[in-house]
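User: Protein folding is very new to me. Would you mind checking the protein record under this note? It all follows right here:
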Amino acid sequence: MAKYRLDYIWLDGYTPVANLRTKCMMREFDSFPTVEDLPEWGFDGSSTLQAEGGDSDCVLKPVAVYPDGTRENGVLVMCEVMLPDGTAHPSNSRATIADDPGTWFGFEQEYFLMEDGVPLGFPKDGGYPEPQGEYYCGVGYKNVGSIGREIVDTHLELCLYAGINHEGINAEVASGQWEFQVFGKGSKTAADQIWVARFLLLRLCEEFAVDVEWHCKPIKGDWNGSGMHCNFSTEFMRETGGKDYFLKLMAAFEENTEEHIAVYGPDNDQRLTGLHETQSIDKFSWGIADRGASVRVPHGFVKDDAYKGYLEDRRPNSQGDPYKIASRVVKTVQSVTTA
């Protein structure tokens, strides 16, 4: 028997953006625990905007576990929030997903690293660094500094140790802006992993006295905002597809534009302006290799007129809840008949 450190992780009830919360439990197990081995655990919902003080008990239900490379016998436990009667808490966005293992998601999470209230690389006494240009996928101290590279490289290693299907990192268009990508087979799996990857980044940055800024447009002016582009496919899209189906799918996305934007992250009007590789928030468009469209269609999707593979919805922003994003995408896709 060995004693394991179980760091339970959940989303609180704050709106429009939920925060990650965590608390630790020590338990003995013969080997690394599975979800089935882990107990449910209560917490004070009145301190997280998820209950009133007079009836404050909420329940953490483990849904996924990951090894923690920073702790001896450490276990990261992603949880859903439940009510005491066993039903999903109203804030539980994961419970809204009609999961299908055949639905695959790849999320591209952009963010800014902030020190003393400004992005890394920005002058501490006000003003701006050199304009956008050489930062994207940049190399060298003047483009990416040193602390930023150390943080993102360490974060990558922590994600890989945890078994998160991390797909890569790159410096982004603005100084201090970075991106990581996570791919998952199954919408809940993909969204769980993005949330745990966010948790690992936030906790890592505590050691550097650096904050992570998820807001989609923290720097006003001629600077790219931060997105969380959502790449998605279903088994039918990958194996069968077809132009007729694709056009019906895009018509459904256009018809549900407002419903998608409503869950694609707050303040998206500041980012989806029609500039900086975005479509305007009040318009829907698709285009082959078009990064200014709502949905980018990869060249491989239309190769040989097959119209099959994956698509990239570029509208979700960096502060979006991947559970809500996946839920909405799945709902729209399922509304389109494959007959």
